[in-house]
Amino acid sequence: MKVLIVEDQQRMGLFLKQGLSEHSYTVSLVGSCREARDALCETSYDVIVLDLGLPDGDGLDLLREWRQNGFNEPVLILSARDAVEDRIEGLNRGADDYLPKPFSLEELLARIRSLVRRHSTSKETVLEHRGIKLDLLSHTVQVKGKPIALTSREFALLEIFMQNVGRILPRTLISEKIWEAHYDVDTNLLDVYMSRLRSKFETVPEQPLFKTVRGVGYQLL
Length: 221
Description:
By secondary structure, the protein is of the alpha/beta class. Helix content is 41%, strand content 24%. It contains eight helices and 14 strands. The chain has helices at 10-21, 33-42, 59-68, 84-92, 105-121, 152-162, 171-178, 189-201; strands spanning 2-6, 26-30, 47-50, 53-54, 57-58, 75-79, 97-100, 126-129, 132-135, 140-143, 146-147, 168-170, 210-213, 217-220. The strands form four sheets. It has a five-stranded parallel β-sheet, sandwiched between helices. Strand 4 (53-54) and strand 5 form a beta hairpin. Helix 6 (152-162) packs across helix 8 (189-201). The chain starts with a strand and ends with a strand. Mean pLDDT is 87; it is low at 181-185.
């Protein structure tokens, strides 16, 4: 279970990292909006614990930016702003939970477990976009009702894009999810699979489905 902690107070951040690590979470700690953006672009997380008072911006603005850009990771705000109005504002901006400081580590852990359960049970089993219908249970794909044959690797690749429509996915993130072993992102293996998907789904040249973002990765339009 991967957790991203966005907390600028070093003592608090290290306390959180140690506490979660002792409960078998894989924890990344950053202390600014810039570092948080970079971290979320490089890989995905099961939960994000977000402080609001950051040195280079407000956590609420960062959260709104994430939601507008299609980042759907569960976010728990952990902040000293404990007024009811602050909690309402945080939830309205896209937070999944709000825990004011001071807090107990046991409650934080319980809320993280709850977020993970809620997020996992709310995942759709059928994904649809631009005429493509991907069924996670039957492991089938259709385009406008017509079955499309995919290898297991092609299916997994398409699934990642269908779960992140409009989001630019870095090559490293895609490779980590598709291949258990580490593959050098400089190899053309990912490009080969993208070419296969394009040949099967991009039947109209004037209507591309995938966009190559040079130096970064790919995007499902």
